[in-house]
């Protein structure tokens, strides 16, 4: 985040300096235009002053507008940010505070190395009752996690997932309060009926990206007494969604590109179920350009999906069915790794955007005796990081091998490419 924040501040400062310099220049020009001629007399050669020294007449012809550079932005997206009890225990400090920075320390630079970074926050944040912080099955994590996630360069969090009502509707509201307070862009959970209606359009390098976040369900938590508002307006459920209307709303709000972040499908499988494939097609047909899926806790294929729109036009969308676990304490085969999807939005002459340079970075979640750390797996395929035992290293290599079979259409990258 520091790199990105610095970049943004620098850009802002450059802008301010440019405005300042322009203002001075304009001020000078204006002064020159109204400055009285020497002697205050009518226009014409003034005695003793050579013609050549006359103030030139100001030109009123406008400077031609430079052709704007085509806009582009590099995006990175990852799957589930989980916080299991073991991760809470590892984060706990002697003074009772929680520090999650070590868990993101080996991957923060990688996450920050983009113009915009997206993730799924699969826990509620902030204490709204007297219960202790908790991992599975009802996730609740201290606010300091957001400090780490923000420092790691993540800009956008989807809150539409099956755990957003884990601490009731008030827990959902508190999570949104905190996510907002820490400066994240977000969508998928709403504190009020009005918020449910808002069109979430973020701006990256001048490109307006509309964000649609949905979840299939919230583990039945919305049915518990006092949580009715979650069902009514608090959560964006897939089953309620009208994709055409949602896309239209974003376009009306200025969106030039549309991302959808569905939390869907069956858990613990590397293959998307039929209903997920059908929904992906519907999203693309409705005008979604990139689908960033999560929930199965395992990686599923990344593919181009073609779909026919209502008017009979064929559209193409990039679909990552499931990006897997980004960080967790899960140990089952295929749950200890995920992917970081890297792609670029490029403006074409027609003003529409291409999704290009799609790459996939395998990430491995290294569970150690006193810390859990996510790292770029390909960097350690040929030699393990210091301290990694052979069994863990074999799991890392298996993760990469398995992803090579699962994702065949796009190149695989390490942290340096
Ligand atoms: Zn989930």
Task: Supply the key terms.
417 residues, 29% helix, globular, alpha/beta, 8-stranded mixed β-sheet, 16 strands, 11 helices, Purple Acid Phosphatase, chain A, domain 2, single chain, binds zinc ion, 6-stranded mixed β-sheet
Q: What does it look like?
A:
The protein has 417 residues and is of the alpha/beta class. The chain contains 11 helices and 16 strands. It has one domain: 4-Layer Sandwich (Purple Acid Phosphatase, chain A, domain 2). 29% of the residues lie in helices and 23% in strands. The strands form 3 sheets. Strands 1, 2, 5, 6, 13, 14, 15 and 16 form an 8-stranded mixed beta sheet that branches. Strands 7-8-9-10-12-11 form a 6-stranded mixed beta sheet, with helices on one face. Residues 5-52 have low confidence and may be disordered. Residues 122, 161-162, 263, 295 line the site of zinc ion.
Major β-sheet, in short? Answer: 8 strands, mixed
Apparent shape: globular
Helix content: 25-40%
Structural class computed from helices and strand pairing: alpha/beta
Q: How many domain regions?
A: 1
List the helices and strands and how they pair.
Elements: H1 2-34, E1 72-81, H2 85-91, H3 101-104, H4 108-112, E2 116-121, E3 124-125, E4 140-141, H5 144-151, E5 156-158, H6 168-181, E6 185-187, H7 193-197, E7 201-204, E8 207-215, H8 228-234, H9 243-252, E9 257-263, H10 274-286, E10 290-292, E11 302-308, E12 314-320, E13 325-327, E14 337-347, E15 353-367, E16 372-376, H11 390-406
Parallel strand pairs: 1-2, 1-13, 2-5, 3-4, 5-6, 8-9, 9-10, 10-12
Antiparallel strand pairs: 1-14, 7-8, 11-12, 14-15, 15-16
Helix pairs in contact: 6-8
The structure holds zinc ion.
